[in-house]
Amino acid sequence: NDSIPAVASTVEARTPPYTLLLKRLHEVRRLLPNRPLTLAEKILFSHLDNPEESLLEGTNNGADIRARATLKLKPDRVAMQDASAQMALLQFMSCGLPTTAVPASIHCDHMIVGEKGADTDLPNSITGNKEVYDFLESAAKKYGIEFWPPGAGIIHQAVLENYAAPGLMMLGTDSHTPNAGGLGCIAIGVGGADAVDALVDAPWELKAPRVRGVRLEGKLSGWASPKDVIMSLAGRLTVRGGTGYIIEYTGPGVESLSCTGMATICNMGAEIGATTSIFPFTPSAHIPYLRSTHRGSIAEQAAAIAASPGAYNLLVADSGAEYDDEVVINLSELEPHINGPFTPDLSTPLSHFKKVAKANAWPETFGAGLIGSCTNSSYADMTRCESLVRQASEAGLKPKADFFITPGSEQIRATVDRDGTMKTFEDAGGMILANACGPCIGQWSRTDGVEKGEDNAIFTSYNRNFPGRNDGNRKTMNFLASPELVTAMSYSGRTDFNPLTDSIPLPNGQEFRFDPPHGTDLPGKGFAAGNPEFQPTPPVADSSVEIAVDPQSDRLALLEPFEPFPQGELTGMKVLVRVKGQCTTDTISAAGPWLKYKGHLPNISENTLIGAVSADTNAVNSVADVDGSTYTIPELASKWKADGQPWVVIAEHNYGEGSAREHAALQPRYLGGRVIVAKSFARIHETNLKKQGVVPLTFANEADYDKLAGCDEVSTEGLYDVLSNGGNGTVSLLVKKHGTGESFNVPVKYNLSKDQCGFILAGSALNLLSQRGR
Ligand code: F3S
Q: How close are the terminal C-alpha atoms of the chain, in Å?
């Protein structure tokens, strides 16, 4: 037994390397004299592998860093959820290293179905996913990764409670990783291939983001909650408004928020496409939270750094720091918002919702109210909801809609259980689901008789509401709201109920009206530890552990390397589909039952683009081959793969929005997709494509989108030279129309660093890492 002591599971091991970071910050100050830094810049730049190269090269000697510099970063930590960890680990295994280069954790949260309640659902899911959990646990033991078993909680809540700390930089294989920004971290959602960079100690690349300041003034009160801050911001900025930006919160209103409230706000920064979001170190919120989660020594160190002279103050922005733009939100005037359906930026203030719902003919009633998830299951959220449930119970009311509660972690569940909150929910008829994602990620087995394809509405305190996201029914309209609003509205079951102004009739003829919710940020008796079986395995690498992958398995398959780029242009590709409208990572690689195949690339590829609408036919998942025969999109892709026919996808704006799901890049690559041409891309997805050797190109003239159609032939011109020259030169596409044979040229743009050109030429980033002998 050849055990390698990795990082000890102690507070010290979970403390950011402050001495090193302050030294690097000093170096950054030397390179960029007289330049005030935002908080995001301080933390990012203190994690540069080579500050001089990243900050001064190609940036007009440091004058023009944002959106220009390529930052080569060394994150402190990696967190992975079970669905994405499979592919991340399969890729890490190909590198042949004995242990991870930085501390890492795996969280089993995405594959647990919500149906009958935690006591039944958890054991069923453990049995159903045993092969995958065994794989993850054995890999964790072999490489010294902390393994949080199913039932322990949702990745972002566990990270906030255990790993997040002011000044830390971490990567997470999940798009809501920025949740940790609520505790002053730079936490970025990435695909597994990016996580592998950090795990093998290769610098992780990021185009230096712009920084948008969101200045908070005033103070929340009554029904307004932290969730409403980000819900209203999503309405103002849209799902693309954060692309290329870090959102940095500033202003006096910050002081009035709790740490978990800040985390909710940062969590949903993903909904506006932000690289990440961050709050400054805020003693009033962060010190009590760190202490109550048993990290008092981190609180003390952070407080000392925040009080240190300006040059060494890593944890708040410099005075005079410049933001690319600034948005102001007055918390005192903020009203609750409801966002949706089907997109998180369709934001309606509660006072207008009745009218808007009627005008859009949205359903008048809704069948389920779901609270909790990684976004909103803090002690404050749960106790504020409890205060509403108590009022209603005392008036003799029960929820009209089914009412579900998803605790974010075992620590939260055990604490609210001890403090009687769970009993209040259960007595009211609420169903407590497992500490897991469940209905937030399509793992919801509904028992209320709503059929697939049936129009219906639900209200959730989750963060995302794309079609099919919760129950696999693309017609289910998910309206996002604060947990308080979801709870109160569940008692009416009507979408037009405004708990601030409307009342509910009681059997005795009287009317019941809710008083505003109230709660407690942190438990007076401290957090309960909960079930000891839900503690993580220690991070000690044991090389004697065997990682078994059965060649017959339909859940796990070892990876074969992708073929390298040809020695020349890509020619004779065909358009598989011209996608119309929104194309999220859910559209490209659906979740729900497909999560089962996350570790088996051939099997999960059978869902590729099944949610996409073809602009040629206006139909979902229906395309034609050159002879006119119709197929589903994955069927035609597989047929073309078998025929050796490479293909491209044509798409509109923000292609790949929504999540860090790298399967949305891996699957098209596996099936023979070589190029995606879109009007624009979501950042994480664009990076994921390049890492898997797929070339993302954008139209120079958006109108050219209309000139292409399925089965048109596409060849690149200039791409090989651009890749060979490290990202310099021009590229266009030569298009030959299917049917008429008419030819024309389409100019395109690209966003490729030298390293990314290397990934594509090698066939994938992993191929390149292997070539370099890592
Ligand atoms: Fe899980 Fe939904 Fe959060 S899938 S990680 S609870 S966004």
A: 24
